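Q&A log
Question type: sequence-to-structure
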Amino acid sequence: MWGNVSVLIAQYYNLLFRGEQPALIEIRRAQVILFRAKVVATVFAVLTPLWIPVDLLIFPGKLGIYLAILRAFASIAFILLVLYYRFSKGIIAAHHALGWLLMVPTVFFLASQPLLSHFEITGQMEQTIAAGYSFLPFVMISGLSVFPITAFEGASLCIPMWLANLLIAFLGYHILPFETHLGVLWLLGLLSIVATLAGMSQLHFMQQMITQSSHDGLTAAYNRQIGEELMEVYFSLGIRLSKPFTLAFVDLDNFKSVNDLFGHDEGDVVLKNAAIALRHLLRQSDILIRWGGEEFLVVMPNTDMDGAHKPLARVQEQGLGLRPDGNSVTASIGVSERVQDDVDNWEELVEKADRRMYMAKQTGKNRIIYTDISLPEKT
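Response status: OK
Response body:
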């Protein structure tokens, strides 16, 4: 029961704060945020300058020109956002893109309100259009609802826009009466909460969908397809940041005999318990993949051979559960590392780890092989 409670607490924590989101969720979330930020920026890059003729027609000469210049700069900023992040990846880039997306209208709002209050606006149409500028923050904050974000991220993105409104109100640069502006601030706060809750709902739905589609049903480890995608991401990141990247190929010893002697149902129990033991013995940052049958792949980002030794030694010393006959489940493990083995792609790294796992099988099983060794010739 307490295990379920702790899982539930962890899920809520990850919705409130960034926390320790599973790697695949962070990758997918970053992809969604970046894509949607670029789509929204593209739409605003097109729509923003289309309003320039209206400003020039409705407002007095200089005011219309100043607003047109602001719109031109805003449109350029949106275009630069799309171009700058067109090939970007990762949650950090996603946060920066989303911050940029909201910064542009915030700056536009802070610049346009003093302009509109400086010039005398008397006509009904002029006052209507000018009042519309005061509600620009509502448009941007409501747009947050399309992004899968945490509560902390939502607050971080909404507060600057809310403070900009507050600043305009207290400096007297507002088109609406001061009392009305305070009501606007209150309504903007409510909208911020609603938009953030919508973003959190998207994040929760994404978490559930990814968890269901990316994990092996029996062992709860990542399935092979998703595992390959994760290795591609982390291997590329290791190259870009000049960080080590280690793989451990884990193959349960004598597993075929469990199926042959006790049946496949007992074999499934052994596999499930072995996966549970692996997750318990390995580190939180390590990624467990069911590669096929009784084979598992452990991905260790930012880890060299020395760093991988301690958790893998625990696996060897404590075992991976019990067989139906009461004997310990052991594993043969082959280990490879990007820098030490001087490989250019994760596929070659898997091949090296697989080959060393085979060497462990051939030299007695229940052991870990970190380097290539010469096997004795068969006589």
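Response note: Confidence is low (pLDDT under 50) at residues 1-8.
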